[in-house]
Design goal:
There is one protein chain. By secondary structure, this protein is of the alpha/beta class. It has one domain (3-124): 3-Layer(aba) Sandwich (Rossmann fold). Helix content is 44%, strand content 19%. It has six helices and five strands, in the order βαβαβαβαβαα. The chain has helices at 15-25, 47-57, 73-80, 92-108, 128-136, 147-162; strands at residues 3-8, 30-36, 64-69, 84-89, 113-118. The structure holds adenosine-5'-diphosphate. Adenosine-5'-diphosphate binds at residues 8-10, 14, 16-17, 20, 87-88, 90, 94, 119, 123, 126-128.
Length: 163
Amino acid sequence: MLKAIYPGSFDPVTFGHLDIIRRSSKIVDRLVVGVLNNNAKMPLFSVEERVRMLEEVTKDFKNIAIVPFEGLLVDFARKLDAAFIIRGLRAITDFEYELQMSQTNHKLEPGVETMFLTTSIEYSYLSSTTVKEIAAFGGDISQFVPEVIGKALKEKMKVKRSV
Ligand code: ADP
């Protein structure tokens, strides 16, 4: 059984992430979306919230599991017996960081390969950071994230403003 991990922060999941999930789920038998629990990154959504949101927007896919993780990605891959890691590439700016990560991971665990899917053109500009910035100023994010994520973002911004 061909199993892969698609790791990320997904803070929150966007149409760009969903595009990579949809395309990679067709290539493998089982796709594990690994949600990084790393408070040093100061995520807007807790790892539980990010997992729940991903579960909601991927519920129609049959071969996907959403699993939180912390620590080294290669340890997580080994634990799940995943043959490879999937990452999305948007632009040259992504490439440098992704190259370094994939080579480091390969040194740590030669049994795990990283595979890259290039972004679909319509999402090449899209990042969770931009979506959060637009939402913080009350802008329309309906073209960037599913409706349920848009609602969760609005709620989160309200809570943030009131503290
Ligand atoms: P990280 O914090 O690990 O960069 P992200 O949640 O930002 O996590 O992204 C997870 C993965 O999804 C990364 O490989 C990233 O390049 C990819 N990705 C993010 N946005 C897009 C997009 N719009 N199109 C394609 N890939 C994307």
